[in-house]
Amino acid sequence: MSGRTGLLVRLKRSAPFALDVAFEAPAGAVTALFGPSGSGKTTVLRAIAGLQAVDAAEVSCDGATWQSTTQRIELPAHRRPVGFVFQDYGLFPHLTVRQQLELPMGHRPADARRARVTELLAVTRLQELADRRPAALSGGQQQRVAIARALARDPAVLLLDEPFAAVDWALRESLRHELISLQRRLALTVVLVTHDFDDVTKLASHLVVLDRGEVRAAGTIEELTARNAIEGIGERHDPGVALDGQVIGQLPERQLTVVGADAMQFEIPAIAAAVGAAVRIRLAARDVILARHRPEGLSLHNVLEARVLAVQPAPNEALRMVHLQAGTCRVLSLVTADAVRSLGLAPGVPVLALVKAVAVEAFA
Amino acid sequence: MDWTALALSLRLGVVTVALLLPAAFLLARWLAYGRFRGRGFVEALVALPLVLPPTVVGFYLLVAFGQGSWLGVAAASLLGHPLVFSFEGLVLASLLVNLPFAVQPMQNALAAIPPSIRDAARCCGLSPASTVRRIELPLALPGIATAAVLTFAHTLGEFGVVLMVGGSIPGETRTMAIAIYDRVQAFDEPAAAAMASLLLVVAVAALGITNTLARRAARRE
Q: I want to staple B30 with a disulfide (CB 3.0 to 4.6 A). Which of A17, A138, B34, B202 is the partner?
């Protein structure tokens, strides 16, 4: 996998609504395009795939130029190695699952296709359904077929348009797990369009916030979620840092799992994940309690040593957002203005950040 | 029973379907997916034979095929005989008159394919030609079959236009519908009844086939 530099996108359009965006999606990582409906995120995704014309575009992936208005290059959609998972999946109603997967394999010799189909069916757990048509599949199964078909192209980048919008909440969580484990296993470069911030904190390592056709914020999840508020998202998002960690131990007798993120360790209610498995954790700012002294006799598992970086206003006047440095990580804590006064919180002050085990949201 | 007329009708039907369907598919695809000004005008033009009285259509074709028009002159020099009152003239008239019967079912079938399916085909690496062959044609198949059945049945039954453009030359332009009229004029009611009942069977069968195909298409949704 040498030469994987990821996806570089720069798009401009003036009508029917203005669009002016530039961002990078690093190779082997999940980049979320987040924004309200009408922000232009689906248009961006379609333009990357070559399905949507724009006034000016520079799109390149892993060093190959797909579109360049300045160099007068424009690959048609069928020449771009993208896997596109449509919101309604866009499965071919007249083809069986197996046939859907064979169709995008035009770039492979005919005798190599069958083995690859078998492989993809196994990866997406579709073996039993190989001879069914889409109408005979459930919503979750249809999504798996759509992802398998997108992978059948051997895409340089996987483009997902609101992949969980069509499924109910319970199924959504298990589909997220499947997607992220597939992404990690195959080191896929993914661009995910969503208006659900849960998708962002659970799946993405990079975030691009779009609003009215413009990039309002872009960066890594850790960086952006450690901010007081993310530009373009406003109050619709519950502040809290998202951190990448891994399982460093299981404590079956105590029904706990130990997760390490940077220098910090968290004890959380047991999750089914092997030691070494990657875990995304989120600490909601409202769940982080601050103390000047180590408390005793509390039902508390996680005490982090930290230092106050800044005390900033919160949308609610009676509250303050305290930014903390814990090791090399940033943590947010939402406390009352009264607590800031009584604890004497100010930049440089050492504090203990207390987090209940159940308040650590973990996604493995 | 006028077997020559029956053979001629069948030949006209088969030739019309064979020539019209490919051209009408391209036109239907253009109308279903193309974005251009004046689409409504083109659609109205295609539908014109549905609303114009056959004798009016026949009259204009007669004028257009005649020796007074460039088309008539060019066709006559190519064929070695005038276009009017010939089988070739009948075929040409039949193609034009059947345009709405061939185009509309296929246009509806193509327009009913969700845009994401055609986008997905492109993202699967299918060229536009492969997309037509492997996605659009199979999905529009019920519409294509309906177009073929309607065109064939309508060709068998067309009377006014045939009479105006072709007259009633046995083996050349005397189709079943014309033959029935001839038999009635000659008070040969049994022969007219036999031929009429045959056309009735064909018409019922055509409707049966199109309904079955429409139901099958609906089931696959």
A: B34
The sign of the torsion formed by the CA atoms of A152, A155, A158, A159 equals: negative
Kindly report the pTM of this predicted structure: 0.85
| Domains within chain A, CATH numbers bracketed | 7-237 (3.40.50.300), 242-363 (2.40.50.100)
Helices and strands in chain A, H and E counts: 8, 21
Contact B59/B93 with Cβ under 8 angstroms? no
- Token pair recorded at residue A11: 């798009």
Which residues form the domain of B130? 3-220
Interface predicted TM-score (ipTM) of this complex, two decimals = 0.84
- Tally of domains in chain B: 1
Chain B residue closest in CA terms to A52: B119
Closest-approach residue (CA) in chain A for B137: A94
- Estimate the crossing angle of helix B3-33 against helix B189-220, to 10 degrees: 30
In this complex, do B114 and A90 lie within 8 Å of one another by their Cβ atoms? yes
Q: From the candidates A94, A120, A154, which should be mutated to test the interface with B, based on the most B CB atoms within 10 A?
A: A94
- pLDDT for A170: 81
CB-count exposure of residue B105 (10 Å: 0-12, 13-18, 19+): buried
**A66 and chain B: CB distance < 8 Å anywhere?**
no
Per-residue pLDDT at A168: 82
Q: Which residues pair with A361 in a beta bridge?
A: A282
| Chain A, nearest residue to B123 by Cα | A78
Give the minimum alpha-carbon distance from B216 to chain A in angstroms, rounded to a whole number. Answer: 12
Among B80, B82, B35, CA closest to B63: B82
